[in-house]
Amino acid sequence: MTEVDRTLPACHFRILPIGPYLAGSMPFDTGCQWEGVVLLLCLDGEATIRISGQTYELYRNRLCCVMPLHVAELHPSDSFRVAAVAFTFELLVDFPLAIKPDLADRMTNTPCIDLTDEQVDIFTRYHELLYLQYCRREHPSRLAVVQSLVFSLLAEVGYVYSFQGVVPSRNRQEKIVNELFSLLHAHHQHKDATFYAEKICLTPKYLSHVVKQVTGRTLYDWITFFVMKDAKRLLQATDLNVSEIADRLGFSNSSFFGRYFKLYAGCSPSEYKNATFKRNCSMDL
Question: Can you tell me the mean pLDDT for 154-179?
Answer without folding.
Answer: 78
